[in-house]
# Entry
Amino acid sequence: MDDAERAAAAVLPPEVRDFIAGGSGRERALAANREAFDRVFVTPRVLRDVSGCGTEAVLLGRPVRMPVAIAPVAYHRMVHPDGELATARAAKAAGVPFTVATLSSVPVEEVTAAGGSVWFQLYWLRERGRSLELARRAEDAGCEALMLTVDVPWMGRRLRDVRNRFALPAGVRAAHLDTGAASVAHRPGGGSAVAAHTARAFSPALTWSCVEELRAATRLPLVLKGVLAPEDAVRAAESGVDAVVVSNHGGRQLDGALPGLDALPAVVEAVGGACEVMVDGGVRGGTDVLTALALGASGVLVGRPPMWGLAAGGEDGVRRVLDLLACELGDALGLAGCAGTAGARRLRTVRLPQAGP
# Structure
Protein backbone atom coordinates (compact mmCIF):
# COMPACT_ATOMS: atom_id res chain seq x y z
CA MET A 1 0.00 0.00 0.00
CA ASP A 2 3.03 2.28 0.08
CA ASP A 3 2.52 2.59 -3.69
CA ALA A 4 -0.77 4.39 -3.02
CA GLU A 5 1.00 6.94 -0.85
CA ARG A 6 3.57 7.59 -3.57
CA ALA A 7 0.82 8.00 -6.16
CA ALA A 8 -1.03 10.44 -3.89
CA ALA A 9 2.12 12.47 -3.27
CA ALA A 10 2.38 13.07 -7.01
CA VAL A 11 -1.01 14.83 -7.16
CA LEU A 12 -1.57 16.43 -3.73
CA PRO A 13 -0.40 19.91 -2.72
CA PRO A 14 2.49 19.43 -0.26
CA GLU A 15 0.63 21.08 2.64
CA VAL A 16 -2.37 18.73 2.21
CA ARG A 17 -0.12 15.69 2.07
CA ASP A 18 1.61 16.93 5.25
CA PHE A 19 -1.74 17.38 7.00
CA ILE A 20 -2.60 13.73 6.36
CA ALA A 21 0.84 12.15 6.75
CA GLY A 22 2.19 14.17 9.63
CA GLY A 23 2.23 13.62 13.37
CA SER A 24 2.79 15.78 16.43
CA GLY A 25 6.03 17.11 17.85
CA ARG A 26 9.12 15.26 16.62
CA GLU A 27 6.81 12.53 15.24
CA ARG A 28 8.26 9.86 17.54
CA ALA A 29 4.84 8.32 18.14
CA LEU A 30 4.11 8.37 14.42
CA ALA A 31 7.28 6.44 13.61
CA ALA A 32 6.82 4.10 16.57
CA ASN A 33 3.42 2.93 15.29
CA ARG A 34 5.04 1.42 12.22
CA GLU A 35 8.07 0.17 14.14
CA ALA A 36 5.79 -1.67 16.58
CA PHE A 37 4.45 -3.84 13.76
CA ASP A 38 7.94 -4.41 12.42
CA ARG A 39 9.05 -5.85 15.79
CA VAL A 40 6.29 -8.48 16.10
CA PHE A 41 6.58 -11.83 14.35
CA VAL A 42 4.04 -14.67 14.28
CA THR A 43 4.72 -18.39 14.48
CA PRO A 44 2.95 -20.07 11.55
CA ARG A 45 1.28 -23.45 11.95
CA VAL A 46 1.73 -26.13 9.30
CA LEU A 47 -0.16 -29.17 8.01
CA ARG A 48 -3.46 -27.33 8.23
CA ASP A 49 -6.11 -27.43 5.51
CA VAL A 50 -6.34 -23.85 4.27
CA SER A 51 -7.99 -24.65 0.94
CA GLY A 52 -11.11 -22.77 2.06
CA CYS A 53 -9.29 -19.87 3.72
CA GLY A 54 -11.52 -16.82 4.21
CA THR A 55 -11.14 -13.33 5.66
CA GLU A 56 -14.67 -12.92 7.07
CA ALA A 57 -15.18 -11.73 10.64
CA VAL A 58 -17.63 -9.97 12.95
CA LEU A 59 -17.25 -6.39 14.21
CA LEU A 60 -19.72 -4.90 16.70
CA GLY A 61 -22.01 -7.86 16.16
CA ARG A 62 -22.22 -7.51 12.38
CA PRO A 63 -20.53 -9.62 9.70
CA VAL A 64 -17.76 -8.01 7.66
CA ARG A 65 -15.70 -9.33 4.76
CA MET A 66 -12.51 -8.71 6.70
CA PRO A 67 -11.83 -7.45 10.24
CA VAL A 68 -11.12 -3.91 9.06
CA ALA A 69 -12.97 -0.61 9.34
CA ILE A 70 -12.04 2.69 7.73
CA ALA A 71 -10.96 5.03 10.50
CA PRO A 72 -12.42 8.52 10.87
CA VAL A 73 -10.34 11.02 8.90
CA ALA A 74 -11.32 14.66 8.48
CA TYR A 75 -12.11 16.49 5.26
CA HIS A 76 -11.92 13.88 2.48
CA ARG A 77 -12.78 16.59 -0.04
CA MET A 78 -9.32 18.01 0.57
CA VAL A 79 -7.96 15.22 -1.61
CA HIS A 80 -10.82 14.48 -4.06
CA PRO A 81 -14.04 16.30 -5.01
CA ASP A 82 -16.22 13.26 -4.23
CA GLY A 83 -14.82 13.15 -0.70
CA GLU A 84 -16.44 10.87 1.86
CA LEU A 85 -19.04 9.68 -0.66
CA ALA A 86 -16.34 7.98 -2.75
CA THR A 87 -14.69 6.42 0.30
CA ALA A 88 -18.02 5.17 1.64
CA ARG A 89 -18.95 3.59 -1.70
CA ALA A 90 -15.60 1.83 -1.85
CA ALA A 91 -16.04 0.56 1.72
CA LYS A 92 -19.48 -0.76 0.82
CA ALA A 93 -18.03 -2.63 -2.16
CA ALA A 94 -15.31 -4.08 0.09
CA GLY A 95 -17.82 -5.12 2.76
CA VAL A 96 -16.20 -3.12 5.58
CA PRO A 97 -17.54 -0.28 7.78
CA PHE A 98 -16.79 3.33 6.97
CA THR A 99 -16.53 5.84 9.82
CA VAL A 100 -17.88 9.34 9.16
CA ALA A 101 -15.92 11.95 11.10
CA THR A 102 -17.36 14.88 13.00
CA LEU A 103 -15.06 16.91 10.74
CA SER A 104 -16.43 15.28 7.60
CA SER A 105 -16.66 17.47 4.51
CA VAL A 106 -19.92 15.68 3.53
CA PRO A 107 -23.01 15.50 5.80
CA VAL A 108 -23.64 12.14 7.43
CA GLU A 109 -27.07 11.84 5.80
CA GLU A 110 -25.51 11.89 2.33
CA VAL A 111 -22.96 9.26 3.33
CA THR A 112 -25.51 6.83 4.77
CA ALA A 113 -27.66 7.30 1.67
CA ALA A 114 -24.82 5.71 -0.30
CA GLY A 115 -25.48 2.47 1.60
CA GLY A 116 -23.11 0.13 3.34
CA SER A 117 -22.20 -0.07 7.01
CA VAL A 118 -21.56 3.41 8.41
CA TRP A 119 -20.26 4.36 11.84
CA PHE A 120 -20.12 7.94 13.17
CA GLN A 121 -17.15 9.41 15.02
CA LEU A 122 -18.00 12.06 17.60
CA TYR A 123 -15.84 14.72 19.20
CA TRP A 124 -17.24 16.08 22.45
CA LEU A 125 -17.94 19.76 21.80
CA ARG A 126 -17.85 22.72 24.15
CA GLU A 127 -21.58 23.06 23.49
CA ARG A 128 -22.63 19.78 25.14
CA GLY A 129 -26.08 19.90 23.58
CA ARG A 130 -24.57 19.94 20.10
CA SER A 131 -22.64 16.76 20.89
CA LEU A 132 -25.82 14.93 21.81
CA GLU A 133 -27.58 16.47 18.82
CA LEU A 134 -24.88 15.11 16.50
CA ALA A 135 -25.24 11.68 18.10
CA ARG A 136 -29.01 11.72 17.52
CA ARG A 137 -28.48 12.98 13.99
CA ALA A 138 -26.13 10.09 13.23
CA GLU A 139 -28.58 7.59 14.70
CA ASP A 140 -31.48 9.07 12.71
CA ALA A 141 -29.38 8.95 9.54
CA GLY A 142 -28.91 5.20 9.91
CA CYS A 143 -25.42 4.91 11.36
CA GLU A 144 -24.75 1.54 13.00
CA ALA A 145 -22.36 2.68 15.75
CA LEU A 146 -21.07 5.76 17.56
CA MET A 147 -17.33 6.20 18.09
CA LEU A 148 -16.38 8.79 20.71
CA THR A 149 -12.79 10.00 20.34
CA VAL A 150 -11.40 10.50 23.83
CA ASP A 151 -7.76 11.56 23.30
CA VAL A 152 -8.29 15.05 21.84
CA PRO A 153 -8.98 17.69 24.53
CA TRP A 154 -7.31 19.83 21.89
CA MET A 155 -5.29 19.07 18.78
CA GLY A 156 -1.66 18.10 19.31
CA ARG A 157 1.08 20.40 18.05
CA ARG A 158 1.50 19.16 14.49
CA LEU A 159 4.57 21.05 13.41
CA ARG A 160 4.16 20.42 9.70
CA ASP A 161 0.79 22.20 9.84
CA VAL A 162 2.21 25.02 11.96
CA ARG A 163 5.05 25.61 9.51
CA ASN A 164 2.68 25.38 6.53
CA ARG A 165 0.13 27.68 8.25
CA PHE A 166 -2.32 25.04 7.15
CA ALA A 167 -5.92 25.97 6.32
CA LEU A 168 -8.62 24.14 4.40
CA PRO A 169 -8.60 24.50 0.61
CA ALA A 170 -11.32 26.66 -0.91
CA GLY A 171 -14.69 24.91 -1.04
CA VAL A 172 -13.94 22.44 1.76
CA ARG A 173 -15.82 22.87 5.03
CA ALA A 174 -16.74 21.09 8.24
CA ALA A 175 -20.19 19.90 7.18
CA HIS A 176 -21.37 19.17 10.74
CA LEU A 177 -19.95 22.35 12.29
CA ASP A 178 -21.24 25.03 9.94
CA THR A 179 -20.41 27.93 12.23
CA GLY A 180 -16.72 27.06 12.05
CA ALA A 181 -16.46 26.85 8.28
CA ALA A 182 -15.08 30.32 7.75
CA SER A 183 -12.54 30.06 10.57
CA VAL A 184 -11.15 26.75 9.30
CA ALA A 185 -10.60 28.32 5.88
CA HIS A 186 -8.96 31.43 7.34
CA ARG A 187 -5.17 31.40 7.23
CA PRO A 188 -3.94 32.96 10.50
CA GLY A 189 -0.80 35.02 10.97
CA GLY A 190 0.93 31.89 12.25
CA GLY A 191 0.07 28.32 13.06
CA SER A 192 -2.64 25.96 11.87
CA ALA A 193 -6.15 27.27 11.17
CA VAL A 194 -7.53 23.76 11.70
CA ALA A 195 -5.92 23.52 15.15
CA ALA A 196 -7.27 26.95 16.09
CA HIS A 197 -10.77 25.94 14.99
CA THR A 198 -10.78 22.68 16.91
CA ALA A 199 -9.48 24.44 20.03
CA ARG A 200 -12.58 26.62 19.93
CA ALA A 201 -14.95 23.75 19.15
CA PHE A 202 -13.72 20.77 21.20
CA SER A 203 -14.26 20.46 24.94
CA PRO A 204 -11.22 19.80 27.16
CA ALA A 205 -13.70 18.83 29.91
CA LEU A 206 -14.61 15.43 28.43
CA THR A 207 -14.85 12.98 31.35
CA TRP A 208 -16.40 9.63 32.22
CA SER A 209 -19.65 11.38 33.09
CA CYS A 210 -19.89 12.47 29.44
CA VAL A 211 -19.37 8.88 28.34
CA GLU A 212 -22.15 7.74 30.65
CA GLU A 213 -24.41 10.53 29.37
CA LEU A 214 -23.79 9.49 25.79
CA ARG A 215 -24.31 5.82 26.64
CA ALA A 216 -27.73 6.69 28.10
CA ALA A 217 -28.64 8.85 25.09
CA THR A 218 -28.17 6.30 22.30
CA ARG A 219 -29.24 2.77 21.42
CA LEU A 220 -26.28 2.33 19.10
CA PRO A 221 -23.14 0.37 19.97
CA LEU A 222 -20.71 2.80 21.61
CA VAL A 223 -16.97 2.71 20.88
CA LEU A 224 -14.27 4.71 22.67
CA LYS A 225 -11.32 5.56 20.41
CA GLY A 226 -8.00 6.59 21.88
CA VAL A 227 -7.62 4.22 24.86
CA LEU A 228 -4.11 3.04 25.79
CA ALA A 229 -4.21 2.38 29.55
CA PRO A 230 -5.71 -0.97 30.64
CA GLU A 231 -7.40 0.81 33.55
CA ASP A 232 -9.24 3.10 31.15
CA ALA A 233 -10.37 0.12 29.06
CA VAL A 234 -11.78 -1.58 32.16
CA ARG A 235 -13.60 1.61 33.15
CA ALA A 236 -15.01 1.82 29.61
CA ALA A 237 -16.42 -1.70 29.81
CA GLU A 238 -17.90 -0.94 33.23
CA SER A 239 -19.57 2.15 31.70
CA GLY A 240 -21.40 0.03 29.15
CA VAL A 241 -19.09 0.72 26.21
CA ASP A 242 -19.26 -1.96 23.52
CA ALA A 243 -15.71 -1.60 22.21
CA VAL A 244 -12.50 0.34 22.60
CA VAL A 245 -9.98 1.28 19.92
CA VAL A 246 -6.45 1.06 21.29
CA SER A 247 -4.83 4.04 19.62
CA ASN A 248 -2.42 6.94 19.96
CA HIS A 249 -4.36 8.81 17.26
CA GLY A 250 -1.95 7.90 14.50
CA GLY A 251 0.88 9.65 16.31
CA ARG A 252 -0.97 12.97 16.02
CA GLN A 253 -1.65 13.76 19.70
CA LEU A 254 0.86 13.15 22.52
CA ASP A 255 4.24 12.65 20.89
CA GLY A 256 5.86 9.73 22.66
CA ALA A 257 2.56 8.03 23.48
CA LEU A 258 2.74 4.24 23.43
CA PRO A 259 1.90 2.68 20.05
CA GLY A 260 -1.50 1.01 19.99
CA LEU A 261 -0.03 -2.36 19.03
CA ASP A 262 2.30 -2.30 22.05
CA ALA A 263 -0.60 -1.39 24.36
CA LEU A 264 -2.97 -3.96 22.85
CA PRO A 265 -2.11 -7.17 24.77
CA ALA A 266 -2.47 -5.57 28.20
CA VAL A 267 -5.80 -4.00 27.24
CA VAL A 268 -7.13 -7.31 25.90
CA GLU A 269 -6.10 -9.07 29.09
CA ALA A 270 -7.56 -6.37 31.33
CA VAL A 271 -11.04 -6.33 29.77
CA GLY A 272 -11.23 -10.11 29.62
CA GLY A 273 -13.86 -10.14 26.89
CA ALA A 274 -16.13 -7.60 28.60
CA CYS A 275 -15.96 -5.44 25.47
CA GLU A 276 -14.52 -5.68 22.00
CA VAL A 277 -10.97 -4.43 21.43
CA MET A 278 -9.78 -2.96 18.13
CA VAL A 279 -6.49 -1.25 17.31
CA ASP A 280 -5.21 1.35 14.87
CA GLY A 281 -2.02 3.16 13.95
CA GLY A 282 0.55 1.94 11.44
CA VAL A 283 -1.54 -0.70 9.63
CA ARG A 284 -0.08 -0.90 6.14
CA GLY A 285 -0.86 -4.41 4.92
CA GLY A 286 -2.57 -7.73 5.45
CA THR A 287 0.24 -9.11 7.59
CA ASP A 288 -0.33 -6.22 9.99
CA VAL A 289 -3.99 -7.24 10.32
CA LEU A 290 -2.88 -10.82 11.03
CA THR A 291 -0.45 -9.54 13.68
CA ALA A 292 -3.16 -7.48 15.40
CA LEU A 293 -5.52 -10.47 15.47
CA ALA A 294 -2.78 -12.69 16.90
CA LEU A 295 -2.28 -10.16 19.71
CA GLY A 296 -5.98 -10.30 20.60
CA ALA A 297 -7.67 -7.58 18.54
CA SER A 298 -11.09 -8.21 17.03
CA GLY A 299 -10.13 -5.96 14.13
CA VAL A 300 -8.19 -2.92 12.98
CA LEU A 301 -8.96 0.59 11.79
CA VAL A 302 -7.04 1.92 8.82
CA GLY A 303 -6.91 5.64 8.11
CA ARG A 304 -4.18 7.03 5.88
CA PRO A 305 -4.02 4.36 3.13
CA PRO A 306 -7.65 4.88 1.98
CA MET A 307 -6.94 8.62 1.84
CA TRP A 308 -3.93 8.00 -0.40
CA GLY A 309 -6.10 5.81 -2.63
CA LEU A 310 -8.80 8.49 -2.73
CA ALA A 311 -6.28 11.15 -3.74
CA ALA A 312 -4.72 9.01 -6.44
CA GLY A 313 -7.88 7.56 -7.98
CA GLY A 314 -11.11 8.56 -6.27
CA GLU A 315 -13.50 5.72 -5.46
CA ASP A 316 -11.54 3.30 -7.64
CA GLY A 317 -8.36 4.22 -5.80
CA VAL A 318 -9.90 3.43 -2.42
CA ARG A 319 -11.27 0.16 -3.84
CA ARG A 320 -7.79 -0.83 -4.99
CA VAL A 321 -6.36 -0.15 -1.52
CA LEU A 322 -9.07 -2.24 0.19
CA ASP A 323 -8.88 -5.02 -2.40
CA LEU A 324 -5.13 -5.19 -1.88
CA LEU A 325 -5.58 -5.32 1.88
CA ALA A 326 -8.07 -8.20 1.56
CA CYS A 327 -5.76 -10.07 -0.84
CA GLU A 328 -2.79 -9.65 1.49
CA LEU A 329 -4.81 -10.72 4.53
CA GLY A 330 -6.02 -13.87 2.79
CA ASP A 331 -2.46 -14.66 1.77
CA ALA A 332 -1.14 -14.06 5.29
CA LEU A 333 -3.84 -16.19 6.91
CA GLY A 334 -3.23 -19.14 4.61
CA LEU A 335 0.55 -19.01 4.93
CA ALA A 336 0.19 -18.85 8.72
CA GLY A 337 -1.91 -22.03 8.67
CA CYS A 338 -5.22 -20.32 9.47
CA ALA A 339 -8.40 -21.28 7.63
CA GLY A 340 -10.01 -18.05 8.84
CA THR A 341 -9.59 -15.02 11.07
CA ALA A 342 -10.52 -16.97 14.23
CA GLY A 343 -7.43 -19.11 13.78
CA ALA A 344 -5.20 -16.04 13.74
CA ARG A 345 -6.09 -15.34 17.36
CA ARG A 346 -4.47 -18.65 18.36
CA LEU A 347 -1.12 -17.89 16.76
CA ARG A 348 1.91 -17.36 18.95
CA THR A 349 3.84 -14.12 18.59
CA VAL A 350 7.39 -13.10 19.33
CA ARG A 351 8.30 -9.47 19.95
CA LEU A 352 11.88 -8.60 19.11
CA PRO A 353 13.66 -5.91 21.14
CA GLN A 354 13.71 -2.42 19.73
CA ALA A 355 16.84 -1.68 17.74
CA GLY A 356 19.27 0.77 19.21
CA PRO A 357 20.19 4.14 17.67
The chain has one domain: 2-42+50-346.
